Amino acid sequence: MKSTNKKSIIYVLLFLVFQSCSSPLDKKYNEDTLEIDAKEIKESDKLSEEDAEILAGWILKSKLTNDDLEGKTYAEIIDEAKLYKKEQEELAEKIKAEEEANRQRLGASLTVAMYNKGFKKYDYQEYLTYDFVFENKSKKDIRAFKGSVSIRDLFDVEIKSINLTVDDKIEAFKILKASYTSDYNQFRDEDTRLRNKDMDDVKIVWTPEKIIFTDGSILE
Known about the structure:
- This protein is an alpha+beta fold.
- The protein contains five helices and seven strands.
C-alpha cells in the first residue's frame, strides 16, 4: 500500500514538473494550427515582444522563400532566426570594416575636399554646383581615378551622394581643382536640402574605388 502511494506521488510530481516546463513554444510548427498556436504563445507570456517579431518575420520569410519549417518547434525557429540575424550582422560588420580599411588605404594616396557649393540656372535648366580640390599625396603621378562623395549634415546623415570619375592628371604631391554640376530637382528632397544648407553645415566622406597611376600601377 505504501509502495503504491509512493508511486502515485512520484507520478503526480513528474506530471507537475512536466506541466510547469511545457510551453507552447515547444510545439512543432504546423501551418494548419499556426493561428491557434500563435494565440497560445501570446497568452502564455513566455515570449518577449522582440522574439515575437523575430518569430513572425522568420515564418513570413519561410513562406516567401518556400523554406520548410515543418518538424521544427517554435523555440527552434526563433533560435534559427536569431542565429541567421547574428551571422548577417557579423557579415555586415566584416564588409563594413573591409570597406573602411580600403577607403583608408586608397585615401592615403588621394584626398578629396569640397570647398564650395552653389546653385545656378543655365538654358532654362537648374543645377547644383560643386567645387572640389584633389590632392595627390603619393610619390607617383595619378592618371585617373573614380569614387563617390557622400555629402552629409553635421549629424553624419547623408544628404546626397555623387559619383566622380576624373581622368585629369595629378602630379605627385600636387593638387587639382575642378567644378562639377548635377541636375537640380525641386521635388527631390536631397536636392532641396543640399541647396538650403550652408557650406559650414555640411561635410563630405570620400570613398575612392580605383586609382590609376601613370606608370600603369593601380590601387583598388
